[in-house]
Design goal:
- The protein has two domains: 1-34, no CATH class; 37-137, Lipocalin (Beta Barrel), CATH 2.40.128.
- Helices cover 9% and strands 52% of the residues.
- The chain contains two helices and ten strands, in the order αββαββββββββ.
- It has helices at residues 5-12, 37-41, and strands spanning 15-20, 27-32, 46-50, 56-62, 65-72, 82-90, 95-102, 107-116, 119-124, 131-137.
- The strands form two sheets. Strands 3-4-5-6-7-8-9-10 form an eight-stranded antiparallel beta barrel. It has a two-stranded antiparallel ribbon with strand order 1-2.
- A hairpin with a 2-residue loop joins strand 4 and strand 5 (65-72).
- The protein is globular and about 40 Å long.
Amino acid sequence: MKRSRFVRIVASIGIAVTISGPGDGFAIRAVAAPPTAQVAGDAVVGDWRPHDQDLTVRIFANNGQYLGAIVKAPDPQLINRELIRGLVYDPTMGVWHGEIFAIKQGKFMPMTVRMTPAGLDMVAGAGVFSKTINWVRAP
Protein backbone atom coordinates (compact mmCIF):
# COMPACT_ATOMS: atom_id res chain seq x y z
CA MET A 1 0.00 0.00 0.00
CA LYS A 2 1.38 3.40 -1.00
CA ARG A 3 1.75 6.05 1.65
CA SER A 4 0.40 9.47 0.82
CA ARG A 5 2.79 12.39 0.52
CA PHE A 6 1.20 13.91 3.65
CA VAL A 7 1.91 10.76 5.69
CA ARG A 8 5.54 10.65 4.46
CA ILE A 9 6.09 14.31 5.38
CA VAL A 10 4.51 13.93 8.82
CA ALA A 11 6.61 10.80 9.49
CA SER A 12 9.79 12.59 8.41
CA ILE A 13 9.29 15.38 10.97
CA GLY A 14 8.56 12.94 13.77
CA ILE A 15 4.87 13.52 14.50
CA ALA A 16 2.13 10.92 14.74
CA VAL A 17 -1.20 12.31 13.54
CA THR A 18 -4.68 10.87 14.16
CA ILE A 19 -7.62 12.21 12.17
CA SER A 20 -11.12 11.44 13.44
CA GLY A 21 -13.95 11.09 10.93
CA PRO A 22 -17.50 12.52 10.70
CA GLY A 23 -18.93 10.25 13.43
CA ASP A 24 -16.78 12.00 16.02
CA GLY A 25 -16.64 15.37 14.28
CA PHE A 26 -13.41 16.31 12.57
CA ALA A 27 -10.35 16.52 14.77
CA ILE A 28 -6.62 16.28 14.28
CA ARG A 29 -4.40 15.15 17.11
CA ALA A 30 -0.58 15.30 16.90
CA VAL A 31 1.74 13.43 19.20
CA ALA A 32 5.52 13.72 19.30
CA ALA A 33 7.35 10.67 18.01
CA PRO A 34 9.85 8.69 20.10
CA PRO A 35 13.33 10.18 20.63
CA THR A 36 15.57 10.27 17.59
CA ALA A 37 19.28 9.52 17.46
CA GLN A 38 20.03 13.20 17.95
CA VAL A 39 17.94 13.34 21.13
CA ALA A 40 19.55 10.14 22.45
CA GLY A 41 22.91 11.67 21.57
CA ASP A 42 22.12 14.62 23.83
CA ALA A 43 22.88 12.43 26.87
CA VAL A 44 26.46 13.79 26.78
CA VAL A 45 25.33 17.43 26.96
CA GLY A 46 26.24 19.17 30.21
CA ASP A 47 29.18 19.82 32.52
CA TRP A 48 31.61 16.95 33.13
CA ARG A 49 34.74 16.35 35.22
CA PRO A 50 37.40 13.80 34.30
CA HIS A 51 38.39 11.76 37.37
CA ASP A 52 42.11 12.35 36.84
CA GLN A 53 42.12 16.14 36.28
CA ASP A 54 40.86 19.24 38.04
CA LEU A 55 38.82 20.51 35.06
CA THR A 56 35.18 21.06 34.24
CA VAL A 57 34.25 20.62 30.58
CA ARG A 58 30.94 21.79 29.10
CA ILE A 59 29.71 19.60 26.22
CA PHE A 60 27.07 21.16 23.97
CA ALA A 61 25.33 20.44 20.66
CA ASN A 62 26.38 22.42 17.59
CA ASN A 63 25.22 21.75 14.02
CA GLY A 64 24.56 18.03 14.44
CA GLN A 65 27.66 17.27 16.48
CA TYR A 66 28.92 17.96 19.97
CA LEU A 67 31.74 20.19 21.14
CA GLY A 68 33.34 20.58 24.53
CA ALA A 69 35.15 23.53 26.10
CA ILE A 70 36.89 23.94 29.43
CA VAL A 71 34.79 26.14 31.74
CA LYS A 72 36.71 25.65 35.01
CA ALA A 73 40.41 24.94 35.51
CA PRO A 74 43.23 25.80 37.92
CA ASP A 75 45.11 27.47 35.03
CA PRO A 76 43.06 30.46 33.75
CA GLN A 77 44.72 30.12 30.31
CA LEU A 78 42.79 26.87 29.79
CA ILE A 79 39.34 28.48 30.26
CA ASN A 80 37.27 28.46 27.02
CA ARG A 81 39.79 26.21 25.26
CA GLU A 82 38.17 23.73 22.90
CA LEU A 83 38.83 20.27 24.33
CA ILE A 84 36.33 18.11 22.42
CA ARG A 85 35.35 18.46 18.77
CA GLY A 86 33.47 16.58 16.10
CA LEU A 87 31.66 14.33 18.58
CA VAL A 88 28.95 12.43 16.69
CA TYR A 89 26.50 9.91 18.13
CA ASP A 90 26.36 6.44 16.56
CA PRO A 91 22.92 5.05 17.50
CA THR A 92 23.74 1.53 16.25
CA MET A 93 26.61 1.21 18.75
CA GLY A 94 25.32 3.62 21.42
CA VAL A 95 28.63 5.51 21.45
CA TRP A 96 29.99 8.87 20.34
CA HIS A 97 33.09 9.27 18.13
CA GLY A 98 35.15 12.44 17.90
CA GLU A 99 38.42 14.02 18.96
CA ILE A 100 39.85 15.26 22.24
CA PHE A 101 42.71 17.68 22.72
CA ALA A 102 45.58 15.99 24.58
CA ILE A 103 46.92 18.93 26.60
CA LYS A 104 50.27 17.28 27.41
CA GLN A 105 50.85 16.33 23.75
CA GLY A 106 49.41 19.51 22.28
CA LYS A 107 47.26 17.84 19.61
CA PHE A 108 43.81 16.36 18.98
CA MET A 109 43.46 12.59 19.23
CA PRO A 110 40.61 10.24 18.26
CA MET A 111 38.25 9.21 21.04
CA THR A 112 35.15 7.17 21.75
CA VAL A 113 32.64 7.94 24.49
CA ARG A 114 30.23 5.47 26.12
CA MET A 115 27.69 6.30 28.84
CA THR A 116 27.96 4.31 32.09
CA PRO A 117 25.76 4.29 35.22
CA ALA A 118 28.39 6.44 36.98
CA GLY A 119 28.87 8.92 34.11
CA LEU A 120 30.82 8.25 30.94
CA ASP A 121 33.95 6.44 29.83
CA MET A 122 36.13 8.13 27.27
CA VAL A 123 38.74 6.10 25.39
CA ALA A 124 41.30 8.48 23.90
CA GLY A 125 43.94 7.42 21.39
CA ALA A 126 44.11 4.13 19.50
CA GLY A 127 45.30 0.60 20.20
CA VAL A 128 48.05 0.16 22.78
CA PHE A 129 48.40 3.95 22.97
CA SER A 130 44.83 4.44 24.21
CA LYS A 131 43.74 5.57 27.64
CA THR A 132 40.32 5.21 29.29
CA ILE A 133 39.20 8.13 31.43
CA ASN A 134 36.11 8.02 33.64
CA TRP A 135 34.05 11.23 33.74
CA VAL A 136 31.31 12.24 36.17
CA ARG A 137 28.74 15.02 35.97
CA ALA A 138 30.03 18.22 37.51
CA PRO A 139 28.00 19.54 40.45
